[in-house]
Amino acid sequence: MLKKYYPAFLKEIKKFLNIKKDGIYIDCTFGCGEHSLEILKNLCVSGKLFSFDIDNESLLINSRKIQDPRLNIINSNFSYIENYIKRLGFQKKINGIIFDLGLSIWQLDQSNRGFSFLKNDLLDMRLNKNIGISAMYWLNNANEKDIFNVIKNYGEDYNAKNIAKKIIFFRKRTVLKYTQDLVKIIKYVVGARKYIKSLARVFQSIRIYINDELNSLINGLKAAYNILSSKGRLVVISFHSLEDRIVKKFIYNKTNMNFIPNIPLTDKQINKFYSTKMINLGKYKPSPKEIINNNRIRSAILRVAEKK
Ligand SMILES: C[S@@+](CC[C@H](N)C(=O)[O-])C[C@H]1O[C@@H](n2cnc3c(N)ncnc32)[C@H](O)[C@@H]1O
To answer: Within a 10 A sphere around the Cβ of 180, how many other Cβ atoms?
Structure first.
């Protein structure tokens, strides 16, 4: 039997979003729907939930388990939430928004799109096959410098140069087609003893690039802020430092509080406090018990802020 899947911070989502029974919430990353289900459990009949996901195939399969008139599922990049919510007439009425970034367990284990280096799938890596180019196309056509830059900047892997070189060498002889082709190249460059971390970094870097994930996140955060109501909560769960840095910077810029307030506050500090746009409610990591239930969330970081 399949082990039950627990996304990060499932049971704490009510507390972080500060869910009001008749509130309006957005789940920007529906995935397998567990966070959405948890939000719905805490709403009364007049509450509302809008759930977004860019992955049309995943939505088709994973939305089947929730039939609920309070839920509205939208197949879109979360960069566009502001347009949808404005059109629906809920601008600045949203009580809480959650982003649970990265890949769902379904995408990793069952989408057959080449996200997992443990399988041997075609190298596609698009979150939605109708958008953009596949990893296979890019890996077989990009120049060495671009491949190096992606692996270095989005994977932060110190073997980036040699891996990029080896990819070019490989594809002179044959098409780089499957995940295991890429695994072979990385293993060859890094050595059999230390290659697991590099695999994770290189696969991550290509996925981020192919789906333009960091720009989507930047745009999604800005849009989320614009549609939140006063005292609305922003909750973001990220899985690597590139995402977390963006979230941290976004919240710090809105909170403007780069000092530890002491009592009494100086006039300058009071003015600064009144000019802030959000209150930073902190950063959290999963508990050891949560990690036992789902080891894949061990690197998760949750940040929460409240709009003033
Ligand atoms: C970690 S999973 C979310 C899991 C979900 N919280 C649950 O309870 O099952 C991340 C999901 O976000 C989606 N996603 C990633 N980037 C997105 C974007 N820019 N816009 C919309 N959805 C996105 C992915 O397709 C994936 O389904």
So the answer is: 16
Q: CA 40, CA 179: separation in Å to the nearest integer? A: 38
* Contact between residue 71 and residue 36 where contact means Cβ atoms under 8 Å apart: yes
Q: Ligand 1: does its nearest atom lie under 6 Å from the Cβ of 278? A: no
Summarised one tens digit per residue, pLDDT across range 206-220 is 999 999 999 999 999
Query: 129 C-alpha to center of ligand 1: Å?
Result: 15
**pTM, rounded to two decimals:** 0.94
Distance separating alpha carbons of residues 83 and 236, to the nearest angstrom: 20
Residue whose C-alpha is closest to residue 252's, from 279, 274, 225: 279
In this structure, what CATH number is given to the domain that contains residue 19?
A: 3.40.50.150
Task: List the beta bridge partners of residue 75.
Answer: 53
- Computed over every residue of the chain, the mean pLDDT equals 94
Question: What residue numbers bound the domain in which 187 lies?
Answer: 110-211
Is residue 26 assigned to a domain?
A: yes
- Same structural domain, 205 and 272: no
